[in-house]
What does this fold into?
Amino acid sequence: MKVNLLDFDRQGLIAHSEAMGERAFRAQQLLQWIHQCGESDFAKMTNLAKSYRAKLADTAEVAPLPILSDSTAADGTRKWLLGSGSGNAIETVFIPETRRGTLCISSQVGCALECAFCSTGAQGFNRNLSVAEIIGQLWLANRELGALDKDEVDADADADVDVDADVHRDGDGAKSGERIISNVVMMGMGEPLTNFRNVVTALRIMLDDFAYGLSRRRVTLSTSGVVPEMDRLARECPVALAVSLHAPDDALRDRLVPINKRYPIRELLAACVRYLEHAPRNFVMFEYVMLAGVNDSVEQARALVHTVSSVPCKINLIPFNSFPQSGFVRSSPDAVRRFSDVLHQAGLVATTRKTRGDDIDAACGQLAGQVEDKTRRVIRRLKAVH
It folds into this structure.
């Protein structure tokens, strides 16, 4: 079986190159060809020796997940359904805006956390995605959107480089304004922090200047609050952080986000404060889906102000995007406005997310893919009802 080079960050490619008898700087050239040029044909990697290209063709490949469908919404949002084997599929979404383009990436086939308002969580969990399957979503989207630079690779096959240099940008990134995909959010299917090692390796590829060169400020990981892994992420690869809060108190959050029973709000907020010691931004984004009659009252807005007072933060209010048998209804525009007004009056920065791609089920919380549920969640729910 051929090795998939999308599975390797720079250190992995260095080890692979050296194992094949090549010098370490070949890893930089491979990263550029694969990720900056989107090249999968080793014969076209012209600054590599012909003998090395032949060895790569015999033993390696660049293989993202296959596209099963490709849909574009009226507002330009584009969604790819990608086959992940055994009848399963994941979804990846590109959201174009005037000054940026954001790619929403999945980390798992389904999700085991069972958040009450999320379509992905409702269908259960199958497996973690590999590094290749995670970073392959960005690789594939760049190709599909025509966002590649075929002139990126140094044509000098003998030029050495400092392969141990730190090539991660911590600012906004010199090239970010030129890219079609300027931002990446780990907000697709799955809980990224329960697939920690593969997600972090993929993040390192996104940040590497020999690959995508994204700044830490432009890569956001969204978590439901896996506290120990938040601390690990802060140590190993801090990027911008978004936390799915969705409730002002433990009683309600236990119902909406069941992992709260393991890591209640007080522990979660303490982890957020610790994370900010390492984060590229000086705030945490709290995500708060607006559910009519559940978490959208003025009193709950005031409680939320008190709850988050210890954490430098912004609040992102998300109109609920319905899916079959969800049991929830989107808050009215007036309710969202009243809730937002309370936050603003308390001095918090609060925004209301504009719904994008809902006509192709690409909006927040709607990503479903196709999942053979190893947790048998759907069967358990049906038995509970009957």
Summary: The CA atoms of residues 64 and 285 lie 30 Å apart. The radius of gyration is 22 Å.
